[in-house]
Amino acid sequence: MLHNTSYKQVYLARGSTDLRKSIDGLSVIVKECFSLDPFAPCLFVFCNRKRDKLKILQWEHNGFWLHYRRLEQGKFQWPSEQDATPLKISERQLRWLLDGLPIRQNQAHKQVTARTIL
Hints:
single chain, alpha+beta, 2 helices, 5 strands, globular
């Protein structure tokens, strides 16, 4: 899992992506297909057709990180819509996805932001 990283947003590439692509190929997808900046403080998440592998592209300071995850059993609950626009999700939804859960958890507690202490 991603620890101690600073990012503002998480974007999922809908449908499947050819994971033979590496940093350059994935950053071209981010720039040309998504019309987003691959150097932004974001995570760009891609999944293969079998839904058992994913790659996460991340820019940090002076270079790219390419995180890779392969499941030995099971599949990711990946959104199957074929759409050119990426799906913006929260860090919490990314954790659910990486744990094998759908990104829509209707039973989950709502996230609460504390304002003040009385």
